[in-house]
Amino acid sequence: MKKIIYLLSLAALLWSCNNKPALDENDNVLCTCPPLTIWLTPFDDFSDAETQLVQKDLLVYFKSTQNLNEAIEIAQRRKLTPDLMNDTKTRYRADKIVKYLQKDADEHNIYIGLTHKDISLPYKQHADWGVQGLSLIPGDACVVSSFRVKNRKQLWKTVLHEYIHTRYDYSHCPNDDPKCIMEDANGKPNFTNKWDLCEYCKSQTLAKDKVTL
Ligand SMILES: [Zn+2]
Ligand SMILES: [Zn+2]
Predict the structure, then answer these.
(1) In this structure, which topology does domain 37-168 adopt according to CATH?
(2) Ligand 2 centroid vs 161 CA: distance in angstroms?
């Protein structure tokens, strides 16, 4: 029975990996899955320099948490089209943008849309609630808008918040820790005094992919 379980695990491991090299009996079985790529996807006038700043800030953060398997790339610029707007054609719908990006995304390729436009969605009694960002769980894509972010240099924190939702299907900080980037904004996000996840949120997310050197 033990052998069957081992074989099933090995089969699952091999099944989940693409482009695996042939194994011989002396090889150690190492997972050759492609690393995760985060595709920062600027829309319209979200500039190259602004996208590169988000990329740099995320890289610095991931290095500090030893999450070194994530490649952060800049995808080709895209256009927000009228079909991604709300019914009154006044704002772009965050959920429509995420679903649009999901078409190219998978578990190894996470797409994060970046826009200066105001984005919204129906929320509680509001038909059109403006948000800084949105993830749909489960899913491999999310979107972030700078429109409601006062200090653009801190935009990476909103991006990281949405990325954690998307990558780990993780909800909000159960401790409501005001210093935790995963604290529930309750409609009023403020990342000014947040620089990291709390230890609990980190243990449930990033720590799982930490590389020990
Ligand atoms: Zn937390
Ligand atoms: Zn959130």
Answers:
(1) Collagenase (Catalytic Domain) (3.40.390)
(2) 6
Per-residue model confidence as pLDDT tens digits over 32-79: 455 899 999 999 999 999 999 999 999 999 999 998 888 999 999 999
Question: What's the gap in Å between 181 CA and the centre of ligand 2?
Answer: 9
How far does the centroid of ligand 1 lie from the alpha carbon of residue 180, in Å?
A: 5
Among 81, 84, 60, 82, residue whose Cα is nearest residue 70: 60
| CA of 101 relative to ligand 2 center, distance in Å | 18
Ligand nearest the Cα of residue 171 is: 2
All structural domains of the chain with their residue ranges: 37-168
Task: State residue 112 phi and psi, 5-degree precision.
Answer: -120, 110
- The residues, ordered by sequence, that sit 6+ positions from 208 with a Cβ below 8 Å of its Cβ are 168
pLDDT at 8 > cutoff 80: no
Ramachandran quadrant class, 64 (left: phi over 0; alpha: psi -120 to 50; beta: rest): alpha
> Residue 86 carries which side chain, given as an amino acid letter?
N
Q: What residues have their beta carbon closer than 5 A to ion ligand 1?
A: 173, 177, 180, 182, 198, 201
